[in-house]
Amino acid sequence: MQSQSRFFEDVAKLGNSAFSTLSGVKEEIEARVRDQMERVLRDMNLVSREEFEAVRAMAEKARLENEALEKRLAKLEENL
Questions:
Q1: Alpha carbons 71 and 56: distance in angstroms, whole number
Q2: Distance of CA 16 to the CA centre of its chain
Q3: What are the tens digits of pLDDT across the range 4-21?
Q4: I need a surface site. Which of 1, 14, 15, 43 has the fewest CB within 10 A?
């Protein structure tokens, strides 16, 4: 009976060691994939969210100004 208990303890230790090793491997793979993705995205020369929002705001302002000028021009043409 004692030998069976020892056997199961050894199997449990082996399982825990394997789980710890696999957990470490998983973390290492995740870190390498994350680094690679960051490198790829950096090389793609994408704009940041802040830059995108700034250009978007400028385009919206230009569109509103264009609409206002179109209305003003239409009124001036009516007066002629």
A1: 23
A2: 33
A3: 778 778 777 877 787 778
A4: 1
* Amino acid type, 54: A
Token readout for 77 is: 């043409």
pTM (two decimals): 0.48
- Residue 45 tokens read as 């020369």
Phi, psi of 56 (to 5 degrees): -60, -45
The distance from CA 11 to its chain's CA centroid, rounded to whole angstroms, is 41
Whether 52 shows a pLDDT value over 70: the answer reads yes
Residues constituting the chain: 80
DSSP letters, 34-57, are HHHHHHHHHHTTPPPHHHHHHHHH
Mean pLDDT, the chain, whole residue set? 88
- Here the tokens at position 78 are 């009516």
